[in-house]
Amino acid sequence: xxxxxxxxxxxxxxxxxxxxxxxxxxxxxxxxxxxxxxxxxxxxxxxxxxxxxxxxxxxxxxxxxxxxxxxxxxxxxxxxxxxxxxxxxxxxxxxxxxxxxxxxxxxxxxxxxxxxxxxxxxxxxxxxxxxxxxxxxxxxxxxxxxxxxxxxxxxxxxxxxxxxxxxxxxxxxxxxxxxxxxxxxxxxxxxxxxxxxxxxxxxxxxxxxxxxxxxxxxxxxxxxxxxxxxxxxxxxxxxxxxxxxxxxxxxxxxxxxxxxxxxxxxxxxxxxxxxxxxxxxxxxxxxxxxxxxxxxxxxxxxxxxxxxxxxxxxxxxxxxxxxxxxxxxxxxxxxxxxxxxxxxxxxxxxxxxxxxxxxxxxxxxxxxxxxxxxxxxxxxxxxxxxxxxxxxxxxxxxxxxxxxxxxxxxxxxxxxxxxxxxxxxxxxxxxxxxxxxxxxxxxxxxxxxxxxxxxxxxxxxxxxxxxxxxxxxxxxxxxxxxxxxxxxxxxxxxxxxxxxxxxxxxxxxxxxxxxxxxxxxxxxxxxxxxxxxxxxxxxxxxxxxxxxxxxxxxxxxxxxxxxxxxxxxxxxxxxxxxxxxxxxxxxxxxxxxxx
Length: 595
Hints:
Radius of gyration: 30 Å
Shape: globular
Structural class: alpha+beta
Largest sheet: 6 strands, mixed
CATH class of the largest domain: Mainly Alpha
Number of domains: 4
Distance between the termini: 36 Å
Number of strands: 17
CATH architecture of the largest domain: Orthogonal Bundle
CATH topology of the largest domain: DNAb Helicase, Chain A
Strand content: 5-15%
């Protein structure tokens, strides 16, 4: 099942049915009604002509462009990157439905209560810092932000603040709110010692609240006002703050419609990019990129553009980040900031249009690595140049797919003016030396069997769509077609649910069926099953002919599969096969009317 045992099928269906999909999706996508269906621009891929459909009758959405589809739960899970539990809670709150609380042990309840209180403390601190920035006491920090080109709207959007010059100011404020020394210490905002008592971790600093993806304040970054050290200070790790699993700005960037995320080094870079219209910028929190960061990014994008500082440290950081991102399957490119140091400085000089040009010109991460490698060799010296090409060949061997490897070899050969065949021989030599078995070349040509299989899949999709759109067909095909005639395993499971629902209620609820499938790819496929395009035909008679031909194709395919897998000695199976053939003969003589 898609859900955890915490929620019953009945509770899930109640939440789903009380949240009209058109209303929910209409809060994210501008929809226009065309006939009985609503259409809009797909939020999951870039398009200019609306192909994203939302059906109030089916309570489903489906994009005819990219294939994204599902019910109201699936939409929130895809758009907001929620887990099912998170989507369930959001939709239950929206509908005013109380959900059962998970049973917790005393220890688990104490831990949950402490986590909740720490989030409260961080929220109170953020509100206090925010207020101080806008008071006379915060003038210096306000001038700093304004001097960096930030508007009042941007300061508000990121909740920017100021920590007072008195080192126990926040401590006294939070104590008055009733929080204990023990909890304040665990929050990471306050240090408690015997000599000085309670004093603030942050004081006399411009403050950057750090939010998690649910818009909760989990920590802070602070930039000192004046010449103090360290220049930037971050919250220590706490029960609610893990630097290696959170990214600054992701609470906003996760809903961007841009095709990639921009990965920066600093808070100001992220804020400057957002202010310039690039709402897809994020940054790691005062630490190098980790596998935790990469896995978090993968939840929201398939492509990351590194926009690190252009100095030596920034280049090293990029070279460290590339393999980490590649390991989790993220495609990476590198934006060239030169002659400017960072995105903030670049945008001040050349503006958003100039930055967009650099995004468009971003360099493939492998070619960036090769270009940086080149700087370690004297390309005017034959021996050094040869060593460089040996190193490059060693890296090209790591591309296991022959087509991809050839494409990179062509790019390297063209850039460095080395013959493709010479480079290929060098790569093969490196492969042999490394003990790597050469892969067989990719096959070409059209596989006719696959074409036939694709046609049969389409026929099975078409019939399922027909059945949920015109439930009157069930009575007309009863005894002639059954779920077992759907030979694709996933399609057969869906067909069983469709037929079962009709038998019980004389209606079909496709949105409910989607909730029965746990895998996101399965949900997408089921949505496609229920949204097959029924080609326009001239007359009712032609449509009836197409429907009959579709049913006959499915039945014939089912008989072919049954024949292939039936043992002639199995009398029961042979009798079933004979009955199936008899049904096919009946079908061929039958007139199926569509009224």
